[in-house]
């Protein structure tokens, strides 16, 4: 798995930096609220605008990539992220930051969907191995992001925004020089293609499951810093542990569980366990040690879920992988957009415990949805057939590889 074309490593490195942007701002949510006199629900809009725009933009990523080629799409996404992060760091109001985070989300949409398809199509080995490599980049980025955010955030809440902008500039240079030119696809896709892909019951079931799962994921990510009420550096260390746990299970544990018990069974049990953990956080919200420990343990479940559900998406429907990724991401980021705002609002106006109860209920419902769709997902544990391997090779030609 480690012997990959340089194009794969270039995109993987840029993916690490891109995913750092998710956790990088987590330690500074409370400092932003304190410095700009904002409420938790207002600050949570940093996640909502980012995820909402990202989800809608997923419908056009394939349109752009199929017309200008994956490399130019990746570079366009990186340029937009650099601008959005830098301008957010220069803002003096919460709503100004929220607006620039929306621009940042557009850039991330162009980058993430194209990066996943590029790695899967260009990597040597099976689809599962390529996804593990992608999830390793995701896990590393999420693990390092809060730590860097905590260090820079202890200096100024603006630091993490400028840090993302600078790191993305490095990723831009790496991508320019290491990723070979990639031609447009033989067939240009349309905005309707991802929506049509959702007619496949398996893909739709996985997408709805991801939407509900992200209610729990982003409730934990966006709301937990407020009841923790710690410094940016302390929160950064806690979420660094969370990210390390996520990276470990996504790369090491998930494939072994999948091989032994099957994808759907592992996903359902994993979602049930994550739901129980969120319920524990709801009960123990007033105890910082309980919350901190649960955040780290949650990384174990999130890592397993991320790897297996991504692989399931790539195999759930007989459509191009870029289209499947866009359809799935459109749905899942819907949950990611609503959850932070809802959690902040419920925590302010009703009870600090309620956001975690809502997250636990959503994840539990997600497990039920996936269980109901299992009949359409029986094939995902089958080995790749020669026809599928030929399809992989054909798709790789449209992305370009230096292998």
From TrEMBL:
What is the native source organism of this protein?
Answer: Mycolicibacterium komossense
**Protein name from the UniProt record:** MFS transporter
Pfam families in the record:
MFS_1
Main location per UniProt? membrane
Q: State which residue ranges cross the membrane.
A: 7-25, 45-66, 73-90, 102-120, 132-155, 161-181, 202-223, 235-254, 266-284, 290-310, 322-342, 354-373
Record's bilayer topology term: Multi-pass membrane protein
Span of domain Major facilitator superfamily (MFS) profile: 7-378
Subcellular compartments: Cell membrane
Which keywords annotate this record? Answer: Membrane, Transmembrane, Transmembrane helix
| Gene3D superfamilies cross-referenced by the UniProt entry | MFS general substrate transporter like domains
